[in-house]
Amino acid sequence: MKSLNLFVVVFISIFLSISLVSAAWPFSITGNVVDGDDFGDVDSLCKDTDGGIKSTIPGVVSNLNRGLGYSDRCINRERSLYEYFCNANGRVKKTRINCEFGCIKNEDGQAYCRPESKPASCDVIDAEAGIVEDQDENSYKPSCGKGSETKIFTKYTCNGDVPEKITEDCSSLGEFGRCTRSGCIGECSDTDAENNKDVSGVVTADGVEYNDICIGDRKIKQYKCLRGRKTQVGEEPISCGANRVCKEGACVDASTAGETTTIKGLKAIVDSLLSRIESLESQIATLSTE
Questions:
Q1: How far apart are alpha carbons 284 and 290 in whole angstroms?
Q2: pTM of the entire structure?
Q3: Which range, of 189-198, 243-252, 263-272, averages the lowest pLDDT?
Q4: 55 burial class (0-12, 13-18, 19+ CB within 10 angstroms)?
């Protein structure tokens, strides 16, 4: 008999404990609801701003007895929604709803399922940098490829309401072609491919011309195509060599250049004068004997 009484007491205690815990728990997950159900404020202690299971309406459920509020919130990487509501017994509950077009938030941070697919759009937000943005505020920026595609330049433009991807192979510019964030550069040609200092050459790099130039009277700067630089520049000025001078972007013999400041040039002038003097003396001697 005592065992029976003890069993009854334990059973009643467990029952009461479960009842107390259930009453104290503010909400629970339920699968027995349907999106669109309208419960309203069925109890003075449970208030729901969206009036039930309304996934496309942001809502806040308040438990006035506990002084707590529960806002609908996005879960599962903004693909689903936790919808809070007051059930028929006036208790706060929540259910999970999959959002077909994604879960978003309003200006107050309250979540809801996007009611329909957002209209496509494309905006150029930085024309100089070449950045466009789609309807979901995803940015698309110019870039160079990686690995075996380092010479592939990718940029984007708006084709109507849709971002359009455009690629360019910088290797088409030749052996000096390369990719930068601003596009393909490195197109280069040289009329003096042998880099001969005795020949005046012109380098054309990315549309800009660089002529071989004289540095003073004795040195020359030879421009040539270089790999891996934004602007193709020449080497350091080099000497034309002994008894040679720079004239009009090329090294020439001082005598042919009419140079009078070099030893060889002065000797050439002296020799020329002596030769003329000898010729004149010969002519005078001939005239004297006649």
A1: 10
A2: 0.46
A3: 263-272
A4: buried
